[in-house]
């Protein structure tokens, strides 16, 4: 799906099953290339993370796993999430304590996210300049980057609705 600034937060109607199928296919390819095992629970957790483009918390994931009649113990789910993050298939968003599927899985990158502080929607952006600058600064500090970069703010629709609220 093509991304323009306007669709980063508000995605147009689309066939989301296609997104899920693609994410699972990519995960299979990435794991095969790297000799990683996409076990059934890891695959299932990835599929649940991809049920929507919005970030999902670990507790919600546990709930979904229980509802489909295949409950999983929390440590199992946390381990699956760790695996998916390490494999670059999912990003962990510390500021929301949630997880979101990466649609650039398999491409080495540090996730860069715009996080709406109001509706908690996120948009993954990719600015090679930002990554380069951070990697250079990190290298100079002897620092190893691992998690995603998260920047908080307000998405366009929340900026509009807060304007409406103050005027009426
Ligand atoms: Zn989708
Ligand atoms: Zn990503
Ligand atoms: Zn928002």
Question: Explain this structure to me?
Answer:
The chain has helices spanning 5-9, 16-34, 40-49, 58-67, 74-86, 128-140, 156-167; strands at 90-93, 98-101, 112-116, 122-125, 149-153. With 168 residues, it is an alpha+beta fold. The strands form two sheets. Strands 4-3-5 form a three-stranded mixed sheet, with no helix packed on it. Strand 1 (90-93) and strand 2 form a beta hairpin. Helix 3 (40-49) crosses helix 5. The structure holds zinc ion (ZN) (3 copies). One zinc ion is lined by residues 91, 102, 104, 109, 111, 124.
Task: Please provide a brief summary of the model.
This protein has 168 residues and is an alpha+beta fold. It has seven helices and five strands, in the order H-H-H-H-H-E-E-E-E-H-E-H. The strands form two sheets. The protein has a three-stranded mixed beta sheet, with no helix packed on it. A two-stranded antiparallel sheet has the order 1-2.
- Tell me the name of the CATH homologous superfamily: Winged helix-like DNA-binding domain superfamily/Winged helix DNA-binding domain
Alpha-carbon distance between the two ends = 37 Å
Helical content class: 40-55%
Determine the structural class based on helices, strands and strand pairing: alpha+beta
What ligand species are in this complex?
A: zinc ion
Q: Hey, roughly how much beta strand do the residues contain?
A: 5-15%
Q: Domains counted in the coordinates: how many?
A: 1
Give, in order, the helices and strands.
HHHHHEEEEHEH
CATH architecture label name: Orthogonal Bundle
- What does the average pLDDT come to? 88
Radius of gyration over alpha carbons? 17 Å
Low-confidence stretches: none
């Amino acid at each position: 799906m093509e991304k323009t600034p306007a669709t980063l937060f508000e995605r147009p109607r689309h066939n989301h099953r296609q997104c899920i199928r693609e994410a699972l296919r990519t995960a299979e390819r990435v794991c095969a290339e790297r000799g990683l095992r996409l076990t059934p629970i890891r695959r299932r957790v990835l599929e649940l993370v991809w049920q929507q483009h919005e970030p999902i918390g670990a507790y919600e994931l546990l709930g979904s796993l229980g509802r489909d009649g295949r409950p999983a113990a929390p440590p199992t789910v946390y381990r699956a999430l760790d695996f998916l993050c390490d494999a670059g298939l999912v990003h962990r968003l510390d500021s929301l304590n949630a997880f979101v599927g990466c649609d650039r899985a398999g491409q080495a990158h540090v996730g860069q996210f715009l996080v709406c502080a109001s509706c908690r929607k996120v948009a993954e952006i990719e600015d090679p300049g930002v990554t380069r600058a951070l990697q250079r600064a990190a290298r100079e500090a002897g620092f190893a980057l691992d998690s995603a970069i998260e920047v908080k703010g307000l998405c366009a629709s929340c900026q509009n609705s807060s304007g409406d609220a103050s005027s009426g």
